[in-house]
Design a protein that fits this description.
The structure is a single chain. By secondary structure, the chain is an alpha+beta fold. It is 21% helix and 33% strand. Strands 1, 2, 3, 4, 5, 6, 7, 8 and 9 form a nine-stranded mixed sheet that branches. A hairpin with a 4-residue loop joins β3 and β4.
Length: 141
């Protein structure tokens, strides 16, 4: 069902400082921040040869990342994102197998402009999993 690792998301208390570490210390290709109000975060993507790192910080006090940083003030890995070719089919199969999809269970538009779902960490050994539908016909221009 799952394909490539799309990204590893790391919650950070200071997005500019975290981006600078990846750019200046590690020599990574760090993109510009952009706000995702529907997810309550500001993100910066670090592009690597084989995947991406998503640095994310809260966008407002109600952000789920704000709650994460209260429990983990220094930041830390928040979730991993895997690509799937058909998110509706993946959601159906996971639901039939007893896995819980967070929220209302319907895909939302993610940071790459593609459909995403999040799976309950209690169903995946304590790991929050994001599924992102990646198909050639869905790629943003």
């Amino acid at each position: 069902m799952i394909g490539r690792l799309n990204h590893v998301a790391i919650a950070v208390p200071d997005l500019a400082a975290a981006a600078a570490k990846y750019r200046d210390l590690l020599g990574a290709d760090v993109h510009h921040p952009h706000d995702l109000p529907e997810h309550g975060v500001t993100v910066v993507f670090v592009h690597l040869e084989n995947t991406k790192i998503e640095l994310l910080t809260p966008l407002g006090a109600d952000s789920p990342i704000a709650k994460f940083l209260v429990a983990n003030p220094a930041g830390g890995i928040h979730h991993v994102c895997y690509e799937v070719p058909d998110i509706a089919s993946a959601a159906r199969a996971l639901g039939e197998a007893g896995a819980r999809i967070l929220g209302d269970g319907k895909p939302r538009t993610g940071a790459h402009g593609l459909p995403v779902l999040f799976l309950h960490p209690k169903d995946f050994d304590g790991t929050l999993i994001e599924l992102e539908e990646v198909r050639p016909d869905l790629q943003p221009a």
